[in-house]
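Possible race condition, two jobs.
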Amino acid sequence: MHKLLIILLFLIGLVKTISAQDLHFSQFYANPLYLAPSFAGGAGEPRAVVNFRDQWPKIPGNFITYSFSFDYYLEPFKSGFGLYANSENAGQGKLVTTNIGLAYSYKINITNNLVFQPGLAAYYHDRFTDYSRITFADQYYNGQYIGATSDVLPEDRVRHADFTMSGLFYHKKFWVGYNIDHLMNLSPVLRNDFRYLNIRASLFGGYKYSLSKRIRDKNNEYLQAAFQYYYQSYTHQLNIGGYYNRLPFIVGVWYRGIPLVNKYFSADALTFLGGLKYYSFTFSYSYDMTLGKLISQTGGSHEISIIYTFQAPGRVKKKYKMIPCPEI
């Protein structure tokens, strides 16, 4: 129980200092609208995505995250539209964060082979802290519970609108993009309001290399190298990884948490991924192996993603240049 208390106190401390923490997924590309709204319509066909993450299962009151999204590309308007909902449950309902939003992207052909796809998302943010289920150090004396805490606690529910903007450049062999979240924090009035999360900026990209020598099989066996960097408050993090694809199988590995100029050194985890593409379905699973002193304490993290791409009747796929990103 003391581990749970420490984690909850840490989260409340985050509320007071950097507003809160964002939801986290190891399978970045299996949750495209959360990675960047520029991915709205990125499959060229209607697409539904479901994600589930169980973080640190050995610690009581672990972190459970759910996500759902649906997006579609309208070719006559060169536009992608998406709807998404994310929810994180920490401490078995003691801290619940929910985001529900709409995403939009627009496709701009710079050359015959290079595309720029800007994106924008607007979402509703809801964060609830159930203080009635949390106890604090000053509520105990000589091991006995003595009553309510004397600490002045923030409000238990935070609700507001927020915005995200992004951009994605891609070619059939490479991609690079950026995402800037929590744009409400740009307001001088809201910048010091603990209810609004600090701006989170990320940069991601990668390269796709075909291993097949036969033209008709060029997309059936290939390697992908990728990276993701993000900055929020005083935290910098760089993730690097790669994938091997020999359809219908996909495997990958990431190293998450390479420190750059963080105030505290924090190597985070190795992430191992595996996926199977079966007709319109893509199933994937990943495991985060925690590094450092907590390697045997947390139980790592488990993540499952399911992607279903609808095949629209009579749609001409050749007109849509596919983004070469991984699917998990």
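Job #2 (started ~2 s after job #1):
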Amino acid sequence: MHITGRSDHGGGPEHILHLLRGTIGHVDAHVACPPDGVYWHRYADAIGEHRLVAIPHRRIYPDAVVRLARYVRQHRIDIIHSHGMSAGVYGRLVRALTRTRSIHTFHGIPRTTSIKHRLYGQVEGLLARWTDRAIAVSSGEQDLVLARYPAYAGRLILVPNGIDTAGGPSESSLRRRGEQKKKILRVVSFTRANRQKNPELLLAIADQLRTWGRLGDFEFHLYGEGIADRTFRSLVAGLDLSARVRCHPPTDDPAIALRQAGCYLSTSRWEGMPLSLIEAARDGAVVVASDVVGNCDLVDDDVDGLLFPEDDSVAAAAALVRLVDEPGLLNRLAGNARLRCRNRHAREVMGQLVISAYGAALA
């Protein structure tokens, strides 16, 4: 049984959908998640609604723990696989109540001093005793987990995220798109209005481009929770960027937005291994990203994308200008990124590695 505290738009819920599809025929899967997001219906389409159980959105309630434990016993679940912070608490508590095997995937180690994240940091060290195997989705995350929670030594497995790498634009189409997008580079970002995703830096980058007289070379399209709300749109309007920075709600089909883009921009302060960067590579949008764990595990600077120091709007703006000014750079980076995506991030490979982790936990 996969457990997630989210079913709204985002990489975490999408990752579970890839796992369901990548382990078909090998795993008899169930999912526990909130019932109010788009992924509830997508999971129902994949495995049947009778295999879904509702839990609160990123909240821990004792009655929900009891319901999950009852469900696990009734359906003779062998392995609980939790994803992220709140789901991880549910997963390990249910494991303690049922003696079912437990796998936990971190999906990013928070870097804030908030009360919630400090409390989680303390709780995670205790939950390790009820974790049979843990999964890090990038080597950078693996290093962070072992440094912060030494109890996972010997039980932590590296399983890079994977997606459906089939399809996407042809090589000739990528070249044509590269030439067309040099005129006005369409920059896309899938983000959220929170500290981790750091969307305010996107506005600082656009403002820096205007200072250099280069904003006219770019068009920004931001998609995500809270981005189309009045609060964030007022920030855009206050900086007089509305003509070049377009704010959208989360998109149901990110591939369409990526295939219209020349660049995918990430300003995150931390990540696990973001699916959006892998999807951008598959769909031909060159990644320009903050040099933080997760992003730097997916991008080799100046080889298959461009990295800039965290919170550095000047360096990020300079990277975007390079994509417009340097002949051949856009096509070279896009081609290398697509090859890396196909070689390292196929959904089937991820599925086999997760199945091996399940076997190790049962053994």
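The chain has a mean pLDDT of 93.
Logs attached separately.
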